[in-house]
Amino acid sequence: MSLPRRTTTVTRLTGETKVQVSLSLDGGVLPAYETCEHFPQASPEEATRIVPVPEARHSTQFTPTQQITINTGIGFLDHLLHALAKHAGWSLAVRFDDHHTAEDTFLALGTAFKQALGPRLSLVRFARGDAPLDEALSWAVIDISSRPYSVINLGLKREKIGALSTEMIPHALESFAQAAGVTLHVGCVYGDNDHHRAESAFKAVAVATREACRRRVEGEVGGGGELSASQIEDKLQECPLVQELNARKLASSPETTSFTSKLFTILFPGSPAVNAILATLYISGPPNFLLALCPPDINPSSLSIMVAFAVGGLLGDTLFHLLPEIFLGEDSPEHVRFVLVEPNRNILLGLAVLVGFMTFVAMDKGLRIATGGVGGHDHSHSHTHAAEGSVAISSGSTTSNKENVGELKKRKSDSKTEANNNNLSEVDKKEVSPSTKLGGYLNLIADFTHNITDGLAMSSSFYASPTIGATTTVAVFFHEIPHEVGDFALLIQSGFSKRKAMGAQFVTAIGAFLGTFIGIAVQEFGGKSEAGDLSDAGAMATQTGLLGTSLAMKDLLLPFTAGTFLYVGTVAVIPELLETGKNKGEELRKTAKQFIAMAAGAGIMLWISWA
C-alpha cells in the first residue's frame, strides 16, 4: 500500500533569529525552499532537491535514501542534528540567516516535525530507543501524544563541548518536545565523556522517534494508532478558524461566575460519586420530613398545582439537559466543541430511552393488575387513586347496608336511614377492605422500585457532568414533594397511622440510595467507553463496545433515566391534570394556575441551562 510522504518546510523568524527547516520524516528528496526576504529564491536545481555543500563534513549526507545538509556554524550542534536526522531516517536541511540560537533551531525542528506528521493516524506512537557510544549508554522513550512534556537527565559536567554550551543540549530536546507536541523522556545511564553522553542521547532519541513514527500496515496489531477523543479535539483546536471561534466565545463569555454555578459548587463539592450520594440525600430527606407538617386527612387532589410545577421541571430537565447531553455532550466554557457522528450510536441511545419509558409502563401496568384494576401507582405522585380507594370502601359498605335493610323491613324509614348513616360512618372509621390494604403495600413496593430509578438518575447524571447532575437533582427534588405527600395520603387511606406512614416512606427512601450505589458501581466498573478512541470512519467500524459501537453499558444509564422521566412527566401525570369538575369557572381558574406552575417549573430548568 502506497502511503503519502510526510514532508514540510518551516520558517521561524524572530527579532534576532531566522531559521528555516526542511524535513522529510520518510527520507528521500526534501521539499523545495520557501522563499522569503531572508531566504531568497533558490536556483532551479536547488528548488527540487537539496544539494550538499561539498566542503561540509559530518553534517552533510547525500544518498538515495537521505539528504542532510546542516551548517549552523557550531560544529557540535551540527553533529547532534546530523546524528538525530540520520538515525531517525529523516532528510533534513537547516538554513540560517545571521544570528541564531540552539533553542530556536529545535523549536523550528519540532514545529516541522509536527506539521510533517500530520493527523497522527495509524502510528506505533509509543517507542523506546537505546544507543551506546563507546563507554556511554543512553535511552529515550517517546509518546507521540499531542501532550508536550519532557524530562531530560544527561548528567553533563563540562561547561562547553566545542562552541556549544552544555546547558543548551537538554534545553534543545525540551524545546523540540514542546514544539512537536510529544512526551519525551531521555537519560544517560553512564559515561565518562560528555561528548559521548550527549551524542548517545541524541541517537537514542532518533531510534525511539523512528519507531514511534512508523505507520502500521493494514492488519498489523498496534496499541497507539488511534486518536482519542481528546487528541482529536486537540488537533481541531489547532485550526486557525477554530482558534478564531474560541477567541470570540471567550470575548462574549461573562467575566463572573453565575449565582447558580456558585450555589451548585457549594452543594456538590466532591467527585461524581460523592455528589450523587449528596444529591440522593437532598431528594430523600427534606420531602420526607415535610410529612410531619401534613394533616392525616390531606386530599391528594389538592396537590395538583405542585404536581404541575414538578411536571414542568421534569420535562424541562429532560428536554433542556438530559437529551442534549445524551446525543451531543456538554458545552465547554473555554472553547467550541465538535460532535463526531458514529453509525448506530444514536440508535442505541434512543433504544435505551425507549427501554426506560417501557420499564415504567410495565411497572404501572403490573400494579394495576395486582390491585384488580383499582388505579395504579401514579408516578406523578398526585395519587388520585387514593380517593378512588376511599370510594371503593364506601361503595362496599353501602351494599352491605342494603342487605341489612332487607332483613329489617319492619323498622321505620327514618330509623333505617339513621342506622345506615351510623353504620356507614363506623365502617369508614374502623374498617379498611383487604384490597385497599393490599394496594397500600403494593404501592410501597412500587415506590421503592421507583426510588431506585431516582438513584440511578442521580449517579448517571453526575457522571455525565456536574451541571447535568445538579439540574436533575433540582427537578427530582420538586417532583418528590408531591410524590411523598401523595404516598403518605394513600397509606393513611390504607389503614396506616401517621407515624407508621412516615416510617414507611423513610424505608422506601432506601431504594434511592440503593439505586445510587448501583449506578456508581456501573459507572466505575461497567466497562470503558470507547467513544474517545475514534480516529476516523474506518476505526469506527471496528469498535468493540455494545453491538459494535463505542458505547459501554454505563453510557446507557442516562438515556434510560431520560426515558423514565418522559413517562413520569407525560403518561403518568397529564391524565390527572386533564381531570375536570362540574364547575366550569373553577376549573378554568385551576387550569390557568396549573399552566403557570408548569411553565414556572420548565422556566427554572431553562434559566439554569441558559445561565
From TrEMBL:
Reaction equations catalysed: D-erythro-1-(imidazol-4-yl)glycerol 3-phosphate = 3-(imidazol-4-yl)-2-oxopropyl phosphate + H2O
Topology with respect to the bilayer: Multi-pass membrane protein
Enzyme Commission (EC) number: 4.2.1.19
Signal peptide coordinates: none
UniProt keyword terms in alphabetical order: Amino-acid biosynthesis, Histidine biosynthesis, Lyase, Membrane, Transmembrane, Transmembrane helix
Pfam families to which the protein is assigned, alphabetical: IGPD (PF00475), Zip (PF02535)
Organism domain of life: Eukaryota
Gene3D superfamilies, per the entry: Imidazole glycerol phosphate dehydratase, domain 1
One of the record's GO molecular function terms: zinc ion transmembrane transporter activity
Top EC class of this enzyme: lyase
Family designation: Belongs to the imidazoleglycerol-phosphate dehydratase family.
Intracellular or extracellular location(s): Membrane
Species of provenance: Blastomyces gilchristii (strain SLH14081)
Ranges of biased composition (kind: Polar residues): 392-403
Pathway: Amino-acid biosynthesis; L-histidine biosynthesis; L-histidine from 5-phospho-alpha-D-ribose 1-diphosphate: step 6/9
HAMAP family: HisB
Protein name, as recorded: Imidazoleglycerol-phosphate dehydratase
Gene Ontology biological-process entries: intracellular zinc ion homeostasis; L-histidine biosynthetic process
GO CC annotation, single: membrane
Transmembrane stretches, start-end: 263-283, 303-323, 343-363, 501-522, 556-574, 595-610
Positions of the UniProt region annotated as Disordered: 374-431
PROSITE patterns for this protein: IGP_DEHYDRATASE_2 (PS00955)
